[in-house]
Amino acid sequence: MSEPPASPGQAASPEPAASPPDSTRTGPGRVLIAIYALFALSASARAAVQIATKFSHAPVAYLLSALAAVIYILATVTLAVGTPAARRIAVLSCSVELVGVLAVGTWSLADQATFPDATVWSGYGSGYGFVPLVLPVLGLLWLRRLSKRARTQETVVTSAGDANEAARSKSALRAQVSFGRY
Amino acid sequence: MSSVNGVVPTTIIVAGLALAAYALLMTALNRRMDIGLLAALGVLEILLLVLVGLIVAKLAGGGRPASLATLIGYLIAMPLVPVAAAFWGLLERSRWGSAVVAVAGLVAAVLMVRLHEIWPVIHV
Asked: What is the pTM of this model?
């Protein structure tokens, strides 16, 4: 199962990818979305239980948990959809996430009275192996790399002489990029 | 109160970490998800379902954790991890499908530690 029977058309392709290499949900993005989905699920379930059963115990912490959950859901969905508009929202939610984990992390260390119970972002995500701190950085890097790749391809297309030439260099570049990076 | 047999959670931790290591090796070797990884996910799934059964039996026997809602959430979510990883990983036709399986293995191991925190009678 590891190697599919190669058809003549596929033989030249360095990567048997069904989706275009510049999609947000293929390649490393596949792993990123899996981790985001995991955090979306666990953060929202945790926030729901906390708010439903003991909201008055630590209201600030639980509301911040709920906010984190919403941002994780937004990032998961927009990365999976991957349209230009969704990508812009993904950049925004990853940025808010990074600011959030830094702000809440600092706040939770400086003012422990406000956080009798932990949020996902307490101590910069130390309760979750600091994954909440690393995740938005990886998300932003991934989105930036994709937008760079898209821009490079556009430049190649517009600077090439005729349409055939443009198509050829575009696919050559794409093959090069996907071969080098996957 | 007697505790849940620690053999199954410990086995899941070992199996999860071994699966993660194997899947990361496949990723490093530029191999996409194959039947071997799929079978390993199946083994992990069976182990998780056995554990769910043991915990449900413990609940049926009258034991209660501090947060029953959280435990029930884990009982529902736990067996979905290998299934979701199998689907999501098979969709990917590159090495990153194997990396998704590695994440599932790590998650299974971490879930065992969390389960013990939720309900200390579940030994690791």
From this structure: 0.82
